[in-house]
Amino acid sequence: MDITQNTLKEKNDRAKKMMLWFGMVSLVMGFAGWTSAYIVSSAREDWISDLVLPQSFYISTAIIILSSISYILAKNAVKDGKSELATKLLVGTMVLGVAFIIFQFRGFSEMIAQGYYFTGPTSNIKLSYVFLIAAVHIVHVVAGLLSLLVVIYNQIKGKYSAQEYVGLSIGATFWHFLDLLWIYLLGFMYFVG
């Protein structure tokens, strides 16, 4: 590879990373808006202050933390030249990501079983926010799973090595961001009214 191609590749890699960071900042702004609205709405008279978050939300939190750990281990395996192990860890991350979503929906079912609904005559503004915030996060986890599918495909095709793993690194950064975002959101919903 000559210097021009190398420089072009470095610029391209930097552009991809910058786009990821812009996307994550915009997501933070969106969730900051929803959590701000949640805080403002908590002053309403019909606000439920004794809502207990579903147990499945806590289980899904443990699952998404494990998925971040498996993604880190996969990235380290690529750096160490352990391609087969990296592939297995990436697939494990995918399985854990799907399990996270399953437990999120179980959490929704737990809330509905307690008589809490997103909309309708028995709904409440607080529950609507909880459903909305969790559902929008799930949508972004689905986007993370799609990016993980691309990473797994590229890994199987042998596109990553100890010297070249930008795509994997970008996918991992987004995945860890989603993990940290969920931990923040769960803590926020737990501690704020």
TrEMBL record:
The entry's family comment says: Belongs to the cytochrome c oxidase subunit 3 family.
- Domain named Heme-copper oxidase subunit III family profile is located at 17-193
Primary residence: membrane
Q: Name one GO molecular function term.
A: cytochrome-c oxidase activity
Q: Where in the cell is it found?
A: Cell membrane; Membrane
* Name this protein carries in UniProt: Heme-copper oxidase subunit III
- Is Transcription regulation given among the entry's keywords? no
* TM annotation in the entry: 20-40, 52-73, 85-107, 127-153, 165-192
> What keywords sit in the KW lines?
Membrane, Transmembrane, Transmembrane helix
Q: How does the entry describe its membrane topology?
A: Multi-pass membrane protein
Q: Which GO terms describe its cellular component?
A: plasma membrane
Q: Which GO terms describe its biological process?
A: aerobic electron transport chain
Reading the lineage from the top rank, the first entry is Bacteria
